[in-house]
Amino acid sequence: MRNLTQKITAGLFSSLSCLLVLGLQYLGNHPVPSSALVTFLLVATVSTLELGGACGPAIMCGSFVGMSFLPDLLQPGCSLMARDGMLLVLLLSFGVGMVYLCIHSLSERYPDMMLNGFGGKLGATALLATLLCTLAAREVLGMSYLFPSFSRSESLSRLHDNLFSIVTIYSIIASVGGAVVPLMVQGKGLYKLSANGRVGVTALWGLCVGGILLLIPLHGSTLSYSWYMGTFVSMTALEVISPIPFLMVAGALAPVFLALLRIPFHGFGGVLGMASFLAVIITYHLEPLRLHLRNRLLPDRT
Questions:
Q1: 152 CB burial (10 A radius; 0-12, 13-18, 19+)
Q2: How big is the chain by its Cα radius of gyration, in Å?
Q3: What are 51-64's pLDDT values in tens digits?
Q4: Domain regions of the chain by residue span
Q5: Do 96 and 61 form a contact (C-beta atoms < 8 A)?
Q6: pLDDT tens digit sequence for 242-298
C-alpha cells in the first residue's frame, strides 16, 4: 500500500513539474533554467518534507516534458491559454505521470531490458510521453499534421547545416563539459547520493552553469542546451561507463544525435535527454571494440 502511494505521489509531482515549467516558458523564461529550477525546488521540497520517497526522477522527467514548445506541437500561433493549447497542456501534464509510472514499473520488473543506469533515460521517457500526448491531442482536435514535411534534399540540407557548422563545435564542447565536469568535481560522491540527491545536484548544475551560458551574446542558448544535455550523460551509473574518456565520447556524440532528432522532433520535450540516451548506448557498445583494439595493438607484457 505504501509503495502504491509513493508511486501515485511521484506521478502527481511529475505532472506538477510539467505544469510549472510550461508556465515559466509562457512567462518568457528559457526552458533550461526553467526545467532546472523547478526540478531543484520540487526535489528540495519533497526531500525536506519527506514526501513521496524517491520521486526526484519523476519530477525531472516531468520538467523535460514541460520544455516542449507548444506552437511546434500543434500549429503556428498556438497559445498556452487557447483551447488547443490548454488541451495539450492537460494531456502533457497528466500523461507524463502515467508514462513515467509505466516505464518505472517495467524498469523495476526488467532492469536489464529497460537499460537502468543509462544517462538520458528520463529524457527518452519524456519524449515518449510528449509524442503520445501530442498524437492524442491532435486526434481529438482533428489534426492530421504532426511532423515537419521536408523533401529528401531539404532534409539533407538541414542535417548538413546542423552538423557541419561552428555552432556544432561549440555544442560538442559544451556537451562534453556537462558530461565530465560534474564527475570530475564530485567524483564518486554523486553516486553515493540518493535518487533525489542525484537529480537535485544535476538540476543545480543545469541551473547555475546553464544560466550563465545564456548570458553569452552569441549562441548562448545553444551552449545552455548542450551543457544541460551533457549533464544527463553524467548521470550514467559508474557500472555502465565510468572512465572520463568514455563520458567525453558520449558527450561528443550527444550533439550529433540531437542534430538528427531536431529535424522530426523539433519542439518536443525530452529531445535533449533522448540524444544523451542514444549517445550513452552507443558508447557503451564501443567498450568491446576498445578492448579488442587494445589487445591487438598493445604488446603482450605477461
A1: exposed
A2: 19
A3: 767 899 999 999 99
A4: 2-297
A5: yes
A6: 788 899 999 999 999 998 898 889 889 999 999 999 999 999 988 776 665 556 555
Q: How many CB atoms lie within 10 A of CB 84?
A: 21
First to last CA, the chain: 57
Q: Read out DSSP for the chain?
A: -HHHHHHHHHHHHHHHHHHHHHHHHHTT--HHHHHHHHHHHHHHHHHHHT-SSS-HHHHHHHHHHTT--HHHHS-TT--TTSHHHHHHHHHHHHHHHHHHHHHHHHHHH-TTTTTTT-TTHHHHHHHHHHHHHHHHHHHHHT----S----HHHHHHHHHHHHSSHHHHHHHHHHHHHHHHHHHHHGGGGGGS-HHHHHHHHHHHHHHHHHHHTTSTTTHHHHHHHHHHHHHHHTS-TTTS-SHHHHHHHHHHHHHHHHHHTTTSTT-TTHHHHHHHHHHHHHHHHHHHHHHHHHHHSPP--
**Nine-digit cell string for 99:** 508514462
The CATH class for the domain spanning 2-297 reads: mainly alpha
